[in-house]
Amino acid sequence: MTKKITKLVLPVGGVGERLRPLTLSCPKALIKVNGRCILDYALDEVKGTNINEVILIISSQHKEFFDKYLRDNYSRFSDLTFHIRIQEEAFGNGDALLKAADLLGNEPFIFRFVDDLLISDKSVLGYLSDLYDDYQSPIFVLIRVPQGDVSRYGVVAVQEKDSAKNIYRIIEFIEKPKPEEAPSNLIFIGGGVMTYKIIEQLLKLQNSDREVKDGLPITDAFVSYLKEKGVIYGWEFLGKRLDCGTLEGLEEAEKYLAKI
Length: 260
Known about the structure:
This protein has helices at 38-44, 63-72, 93-98, 101-104, 124-135, 196-206, 218-227, 247-259, and strands at residues 7-11, 32-33, 36-37, 53-58, 81-86, 109-112, 116-119, 139-144, 154-162, 167-175, 186-194, 232-236, 240-243. The protein is of the alpha/beta class. The chain has one domain (7-259): Alpha-Beta Complex (Spore Coat Polysaccharide Biosynthesis Protein SpsA, Chain A), CATH 3.90.550. It has a nine-stranded mixed sheet with strand order 5-4-1-6-11-8-12-10-9, sandwiched between helices. α2 (63-72) links the parallel β4 (53-58) and β5. α6 (196-206) packs across α7.
């Protein structure tokens, strides 16, 4: 029997260095774009899905901000159960996801990086939920960027495209390759569907004696999973991506959203 996705994990504990000075007085996810918090846009995507639980992974210094946000917006999200987990240190987005492991069990779930606003005819969470019903494997959001920009991102090598659904089989993740060495111009953004098999990989990496450079990036778990013959798919998003992770991107998003 197909398991429905009912949980959404939102890692919102980053300090938002690229958004200073705005983040000196407000968590990145609660900065307003076109009159609304960035977090609002991700929560709007829940409508029309089976998601009924939201797990916020936050920094300890921001707890009162998010407590207030949830109190102020209770009537809007009264059909959702919220959980807060604390990430004491910025030790990577993989480490952030492990803070929610006790709430996830062996259920599939969606994780979203809220500073990627993804505008399309149907919510990204709705698309991902439907795709998981079809593929029953981890599925991540991909977009294309100019070849000259790939060195700023995590790039994927792909095969076996299902053109009808813009789905690829991912065979490799490469972090910030040189443009001439990149296997494609498809990059990993926004989030995706994960299963407990990815959480297991994160736990293995956390407990290993590997050299720690950038904490525990989630992509390290993807690489390990693929090495163990795991199957991961990528969904090419063809809508509009608004990157709210920088001041320049925030300004562009403000202008774009004001027009629609």
